[in-house]
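Hi again,

Forgot to attach this to my earlier email, sorry! This is the prediction with cobalt (II) ion bound. I've pasted everything inline since the attachment limit keeps bouncing my files.
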Amino acid sequence: MSESPRINHTGIAVRDLDVAVRTYIEALGASLSDRVDVPDQGVAVAFLTLGDTQIELVQPLSTDSAVARFLERRGEGLHHICVQVDDVRGELDRLASQGHELIDREPRHGAHGLVAFVHPRSAHGVLLELLERE
Ligand code: CO
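Structure tokens for the complex follow:
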């Protein structure tokens, strides 16, 4: 039985991962479940469990990463919403055939599975991450 699609996590762009992790633990009682560098994307991420969902804090590791440009333009804040799907390639094909604008036409390996991003222009201003858990 499929439990997809569902929101897997909300991504927040931050300047200092340690400070942000402490804030979310102290302010919300979230618990740190994972912390990894994703050199591919030039970011360090921390996942915090909050009830039955997660918050992903994302800090750029290099000034030319997409998240670094995001912070420069918009400052810290909501960066993306991640929707968990059963078949990320199938979803990309379906969205492309409906004329949606994709950032990734092919999924790549993220921290927890295959991921692909849909452009905010196709989702009313919000960057969407599709995740197929591995
Ligand atoms: Co994410």
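Helices lie at 17-28, 66-74, 88-97. The pocket of cobalt (II) ion is lined by residues 9, 11, 56, 80, 82, 129 (CB under 6 Å).

That should be everything now.

G.
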